[in-house]
């Protein structure tokens, strides 16, 4: 797997980290003056200032470099696989919508597989560099370790939900990682939970820098709540989500729909400064028409449009429309800024509305139906809707109401709809009736053929 698990005795900071830090993360971390472009690992972690330069590289928002999902393609591909958007821009993109993926698909080989692993190398490098480093204070080591564990957990959470079992890499030692088999999904989730549980012990409620760009305690809790929800650990998911909601640091009711994704949003639990080199935000660049009169690259499907109830302000504020000739196209309009000179929008990773819906779903499963209803109504009220009419005595009715709210609240965000359909076992029924070509094998994407050729221990997913 040489293209993924590389090793060198020099850690490349390079032009991306140097230029990207100034362009994309200036408000995240103040980096030392005149940083070098190449340093040894020992030099890179010689003190807290040089270590922070390496840490900043993890959060750089620029395509597939730095932060592994800042190109936005994971959101696009999963939205195509679900029932949220369609496309005609390329055959590789269309394969996700029509369930005709191949292991040579360019999104699979690069954006969804290689980029996260490349970014994870930097995460593992930081973890290795700060561990037992006498040049760094114990408090500093704890903070950075906790942050990197949260980032790594996010990468593996996405990878395991996209591909199933994947190689589990927690080191930068190429000799140990050049040829690895796929770890089981159980092993991947165990690593995710171990990272997040340890991060909870190391992180504080206070964000370590201005904004909410680097994880704090509640970031780890929110992601762990999501993980436990996916694993069916209902009480744990409820407890973690409840702690985040009751922390008092975040708010939904006082955040208007068009303020959710702005820099400084009080709903944000984790967001990155999204002023990349080719546009402010990759989600905006993907979903918005690129100029007046242009057809959106990924128009919203009728399936998503029809999910909104009459009077839902999310339809008015988060779905845009444009006319091209005599045809009207709708598109995701959560991020509204294509101008790289305007930096008011940040890339949202975790937000409080999702945590409310996590608590609602978990509450329904542990038979706390009134709490589930209350949480659903919190989200509906912000959307300008009346309280849910779901039968408070019926767990099934309440769970259906939760899933409906997740569909209309979290669309085109981080694969939530695609993952929800799969984890609830409803993908075949929903997608099979809406689209053609769906089969159970389509629930997992193929591993890149290039990686299988490089690593003979990798086994392809069924059906590819």
Automatic annotation (TrEMBL):
Coiled coil regions, renumbered to chain: none
Domain SusD-like N-terminal span(s) in chain numbering: 85-229
Principal subcellular localization: membrane
Residues annotated as domain RagB/SusD: 334-464
Keyword line: Cell outer membrane, Membrane, Signal
GO cellular component: cell outer membrane
Domain of life: Bacteria
Localization: Cell outer membrane
Keyword Chaperone: no
Keyword Membrane annotated: yes
Family note: Belongs to the SusD family.
Protein name, as recorded: RagB/SusD domain-containing protein
Protein species of origin: Mucilaginibacter mallensis
Taxonomy of the source species: Bacteria, Pseudomonadati, Bacteroidota, Sphingobacteriia, Sphingobacteriales
